[in-house]
Amino acid sequence: MTKKKYVYLFNEGNANMRELLGGKGANLAEMTNIGLPVPQGFTVTTEACTQYYEDGKKIDASIQEEIFAGLKKMEKITGKKFGDATNPLLVSVRSGARASMPGMMDTILNLGLNDETVEGLAKLTNNPRFAYDSYRRFIQMFADVVMEVPKPLFENILDEAKEAKGVKLDTELNANDLQEIVKKFKTLYKQKKNQEFPQDVNAQLIAAVEAVFRSWDNPRAIVYRRMNDIPASWGTAVNVQSMVFGNMGDDCGTGVAFTRNPATGDNKLYGEYLMNAQGEDVVAGIRTPSPIATLAEQNKAVYDQFQNICNILESHYKDMQDMEFTIEHGKLYMLQTRNGKRTAKAALKIAVDFVNAGVWSKADALLKIEPKQLDSLLHPTFDDKALKSAKVIAKGLPASPGAAAGKVCFTSSEAIERSANGEKVVLVRLETSPEDIEGMASAQGILTVRGGMTSHAAVVARGMGACCVAGCSDIVVDEEARTLKVNGKVYTDQDYISIDGSTGNVYGEQIATVPASLSGDFGTVMQWADEYRTLQVRTNADTPKDAKQAYHFGAQGVGLCRTEHMFFEADRIMAMREMIVSKTVEERKKALAKILPMQKKDFVGIYTEMKGNPVTIRLLDPPLHEFLPHTDDEIQALAKEMGLTFKSLKDTVASLHEFNPMLGHRGCRLAITYPEIAEMQTEAIVSAAIEVKKKHGYDIVPEIMVPLVGHKNELDFVCKHIREVADRIIKESGLNLHYKVGTMIEVPRAAVTADEIAKTAEFFSFGTNDLTQMTFGFSRDDAGKFLNDYYAKKIFEQDPFARIDENGVGRLVKMAVELGKSTRKDIKLGICGEHGGDPATIEFCHNVGLTYVSCSPFRVPIARLAAAQAAIKAKRAK
Amino acid sequence: MTKKKYVYLFNEGNANMRELLGGKGANLAEMTNIGLPVPQGFTVTTEACTQYYEDGKKIDASIQEEIFAGLKKMEKITGKKFGDATNPLLVSVRSGARASMPGMMDTILNLGLNDETVEGLAKLTNNPRFAYDSYRRFIQMFADVVMEVPKPLFENILDEAKEAKGVKLDTELNANDLQEIVKKFKTLYKQKKNQEFPQDVNAQLIAAVEAVFRSWDNPRAIVYRRMNDIPASWGTAVNVQSMVFGNMGDDCGTGVAFTRNPATGDNKLYGEYLMNAQGEDVVAGIRTPSPIATLAEQNKAVYDQFQNICNILESHYKDMQDMEFTIEHGKLYMLQTRNGKRTAKAALKIAVDFVNAGVWSKADALLKIEPKQLDSLLHPTFDDKALKSAKVIAKGLPASPGAAAGKVCFTSSEAIERSANGEKVVLVRLETSPEDIEGMASAQGILTVRGGMTSHAAVVARGMGACCVAGCSDIVVDEEARTLKVNGKVYTDQDYISIDGSTGNVYGEQIATVPASLSGDFGTVMQWADEYRTLQVRTNADTPKDAKQAYHFGAQGVGLCRTEHMFFEADRIMAMREMIVSKTVEERKKALAKILPMQKKDFVGIYTEMKGNPVTIRLLDPPLHEFLPHTDDEIQALAKEMGLTFKSLKDTVASLHEFNPMLGHRGCRLAITYPEIAEMQTEAIVSAAIEVKKKHGYDIVPEIMVPLVGHKNELDFVCKHIREVADRIIKESGLNLHYKVGTMIEVPRAAVTADEIAKTAEFFSFGTNDLTQMTFGFSRDDAGKFLNDYYAKKIFEQDPFARIDENGVGRLVKMAVELGKSTRKDIKLGICGEHGGDPATIEFCHNVGLTYVSCSPFRVPIARLAAAQAAIKAKRAK
What we know:
eight-stranded parallel beta barrel; 47% helix; elongated
């Protein structure tokens, strides 16, 4: 085994070494190479992180040696010495994974300070205020990140000091104040950790590197990885970089900027900076930063230099860049560059602009857009009329576009819970922190009191495509009293508010919304996608309304129409219940006759909205008891309505009880015991198609889908009943109508015997929800009890219900595709589980050779883009 | 397409044409060919039956033509003419499938009679009594079998006639009486069917053939096929044979006989006959027949001729024969021969005798024994001591050996229901009919009042290996009052009786039983089986008692020890419940510490009984709520005992509720959320092995089995915890102990990713119960609601929980075997579902390359034989 190299100086790497050096490290190296002003440093590789975990969370001595060797080289270049009392080298220690995970992992600045070096730094810079400001920052960060002493304890001390002095900002504290604070910080540290604050700078460094490695596995990073498909095995690199200081005085500062506007895509430098501050002050949202444009007024030379660097970086990386910089005594340093995260709107505009500029091909542009992000453009915006009469009660920063209305909600956990119960909530926080990530995802939108456009809330919301208004200082939030006050008016958690992420407006009421449309850049990109994709995109639609929405979004047919959903409506459930409690075939047929015209009407509506595109209709699927009342009161009421005794109805309900409803009397099993149900449904499906053909001339090809088939004989039996009814009705109509009979592949046995089943089935539709449940052997309703443990213990990294499990469920799908085609070469193959709208799954579906994916109407544009990406990637991989 | 031949004269066929002609037809042809006295006739093939179903239950005109052409040839040979008024040809129409299905399908005798031909027959034979006796039999049979007029209506008329005349037997009725009866029968027929009894003999014949075809699909035939693995696609042939008459007078008769004793295997002619009777009289058990030996006194010539034919047939077919014969005016006719059904005891003796006689090789002999039948020898017999003090209250015929004790039960449906509820019942009937077949299978034993050794009850019970005492006329059964009277004492359905099928004794109490032993012929055959088989046979045993029993029956290890079964015992459930309601790891560990010594003790016991053979122990598997109380009263009681509030315990119970427990928090998922459970179990498993090694020197290799694994990571996680504990304990013991860690393959995903899982798993054990549930997507507990419909509609022919579904579940097993071996060449492969004791599944397991099967202790000898048969068949197929 040749010895691995675990530490790379910046000048030893380049942008292609992202896997080894992480994104930040690779780009620091690249910037160094192309001659940009980057403070010197080195990167400890992602492999060192993996090794750290393999070694039982210890950094091996040989790797430690390499780190100190790197440090020596830095000392040589900078002329400073780590831990030296007269000319100390200070470093930042920052995480940097292969994929950007903003705010998820830890950073420590000003490392190398101790009671001696702080004095040296004060003397050397002749700036004791700066020296102690840096030291107090370091103590707090080290204590928080490395030793887990809660940050607020330190902030309290700082706040007390400011209060005692009667000032508001930390910049108003002088060297003596800060020296006092440092003492108090150290006392607090000793109190909490039973040891002095570490003075050995080498120990500081190793502890900090370990802490960053450790932070790869903190709970919020695990959640983030799951949401963003990042494998745990990647690990993070650590960048150790010579400090430059934005906090040395008023000719110093620090900031973040984008080469284009990340919210709109406008081709204009965009960002914020704070003078006399260190990096964390900008993103933490404690002081409100100034827009980047004002830097031109403050220091034209630096601004011009920065503008120039931005141009270099964007054309070098051929993408919009997101950068961090520091100005030390008027000198500009670049601390980071990366492809900038952007809203969907910006992504589309940037894509169109780059293609128009000849920088990207259409295929390149399509690959640059994250399909899931489009979601934000597909959600409703406020209804113009409703908006006119609505009163703005406050105004914040338009941090992430979109419109949201919901009841006020004050904590992340509350947002998760109330949303799960079907409530729409807007999460209102003083400021958000990485712990809020799940709550933000659950809420309709996020409103924060503090923080700017690059605050945590804003960055995360844009990434999620969630609506966000940030830094809305007009409102007063009392998290304990659970109230929100604006201009003296109090809102509780039962009051509605609405927020507009595109304007920053906040409204004290619920405002109606209107659906999104596919126009402008969005339309252009969708058209490109359609040029490249070969996979068709259909929709899951149970109502004419859904079908209409999906058609508008470009759906090429209905891949799944669930007929049972039509029967939960109040005016229909009675007929359904009558059918279920029937004791004889005759009684059941009588009840079914009442249902027939309702079903037919639905199908007429759906066919009409689909304008001649194929519609796949699934026969009744759920266990019958789902339609029945369960409490004694409900049963009593129903019995009365239906003229039955309480006891007899209660007995019927009890007789339908199942131990494992998921594995019970449902799907085609219903059609086998009660063929008359399938017959009624067939009649509705076929006669509706005939009616629509007569009326509109649409040549609908209904695809009748038999659910839960596991054995060819099941399908044969039901198919025979379907064909008898369908053929009779078509013959009676005198028209020519084609229809298909096929099946869901959702039971493992169906996948394994797909060659047999394809003898009868003219199409397969993979029902990957059920297939996942049965292949893994756990039900979605019950898995909640242990899946969190599975994520925490890294047994699963992905939710198999969100993204198809390629190794297991995927193997069955592949097998079924091959077996199905071996029997019936031209078999139509689709997927209609919720996976059908997941981009990674869509790529799998393309590669495995499906004909179409079917997803919810609002996922159709996402699926169109994902299908195009899959086609482009597959072509390029050849 | 060359024209198929659907009708074969007996002289056109032979014994090898069983598939086409059915067993009866092929053997009638064979007997014809070797010159035995067989009445002439022809066989309508099984293909005609299949065609009948394909043509929508109609006999095609061309097949009808062939039938009548066959009839013409019969007329030519016999010199009689079908439907002729002066010399009429009468025929029997009898079913005959490929595999013998005694009593399952229909037979019609004396066909060809009508108002004219009956007169002709009377004149021709000068025996009007005989002619009308034949006609009344024909009308009743035709009406019953072809037209579904209930038989009892006819029997009532016959009974009234006998009563009116003051006689007891039908032989005491004269020609006039019978003529009157014929009239009444015809009136009844017209009344029920709104048409005259058919006089067209051709129409009679076709209707009868159709009725036999139809009877292939009657409910009892479907049940029988399912129990005996006979596919529906085989169909039945129909034999049309010239009648010979046992009812022409006292020099006529009919009987059935076996070349050896079918109950004991004794090499001595065995059977019964009735003079002046037709075949159905013997098997129906209405009159009690005479033993075959007495025929020698009655007609020495015929007896000798029959004895001679028996010898010819046994040496021709090289097996014990079961024959039907008729004597017409002193002349012997053979109506059927087939390999005789026999008890397990007889099967073993016959096998040993035939091998000793040099007729069969050992391999031949092993193939001749039906493994399932051995079951009857493995069940307890009465305890000698208990038997000594027991009083015989009645005595019947020893119809099928074995001992049974249970509460009295009067109907078949009651037997099914009470047995399902865990009650042991003895089915007591006047006589059984084919409809009783399921009830007989559910009961401990069968006691009938009427019928001989070849009555329906006796034949079926022997086939099932069920204990049966038949023809016990000492008892009086009142089926309506639901009582059984013997010598004035009344037994109700709550009273126990015991019956001994080897002696015919009936006892009015519950008698203790003792287990069976493998000695004599049984031991010999088992030894032969062990010489041939390559598949190992292990047992499923949860207790030392089970392990001991299985070891005694030849088990080579434990394939499945279910640890949870140890915790339902009253003295242990408390500790288990404590563990479950624990809120913290510490509390849980405290409760587990109480369980540890109990588990260890069980394992010590099982290892000791297994004397050094490997023992596979499965970690805790079922959802935890199974251990908790569910009613409020039970919860209250437990809360009190455990010092918890009712509410808190109720909440805990509620929180453990699952929607689909089968797909819930169970199996390895428990060990993942609560690793301390797996750790405790590992400690018990390993320290018990060390204790046994120290004490007895047995070098036990415990195989620790992780249940319900679907993903390699699950196994890795649990395996890590197991190995840590196991290695620590072994190290502490200072001994050298080997152990294995493996997994169940019972989740479809495990089968599909077996290559991955085998990286960690040292062995696989196929849990085909769960694998079947998840592969089909139905749970055993819920499938009852629709599986009967599936059988009735021929969607399933087999219960997939009894016999492995080779096409679906089997494909997954095969895949897992191949994938597992691709990763780990020497992986140990077993099966531990209930399928492990099913002979057909065992054959599958042999062919697919498993190392062992594991089954319940009482199935071990069956599995040994089945494994030998599989090895022999596989070798011969090469």
